[in-house]
Amino acid sequence: MAQVLAAHGICGELKCRVITDFPKRRFKAGNSVTLKGERHVIQSARVQGDTVLLKLQDIADRTVAQTYRGAVVEVATQDAVRLPRGQFYWHQVIGLRVEHATTGELLGQVSDIIETGANDVYVVKGEHREILVPAIKDVVKQIDPSAGRMLIEPLPGMLPGG
């Protein structure tokens, strides 16, 4: 949902980079979130563009807030917003095996996702290479988190030697 960038002010607010498509729904007072494996209840939140100032009920001062710098603000899987068919959360994609749809060759594993504006790009790390896979229908043929794999049809020149 977000990543803590820094403490904000002296009352324990957290300045966070928003990484959810549903910030107003996610950061409502009374909702529960998890940071560093600890459950917290949102007291208040102010969304400001791509950041949110998050006040959690049990963090009352700047010193404590600073200990969460870099932490990821997460929500329990059962509380996640249902996505439309064919859309996936990042945690469902990162870690998938990536296979060539035609040859079945194992190309690597999704290690990261880059947001480019036009479309996401999957960073696929193989044994001796890294491939950047644009998240477009012409390339990504199937994403199947339950099977732990993604099938792609690489564009010409996308693979080394190809």
* Overall number of domains: 2
Portion of residues in helices? under 10%
What is the CATH class designation of the largest domain?
Answer: Mainly Beta
Tell me how many strands there are: 12
Major beta sheet summary: 6 strands, antiparallel
Q: How many H/I helical runs?
A: 3
Strand order of the largest sheet: 3-4-5-2-1-6
As a whole number of angstroms, the C-alpha radius of gyration is: 19 Å
Report the portion of residues in β strands: 35-45%
The general outline is elongated
Q: Note poorly predicted spans.
A: none
In whole angstroms, how far apart are the ends?
37 Å
The fourth-level CATH homologous superfamily of the largest domain is: RimM
> H/E series, N to C?
EEHEEEHEHEEEEEE
The CATH topology label of the largest domain is Elongation Factor Tu (Ef-tu), domain 3
**Structural class of the helices, strands and pairings?**
mainly beta
Per CATH, the architecture of the largest domain is Beta Barrel
For the residues shown, what is the average pLDDT? Answer: 90
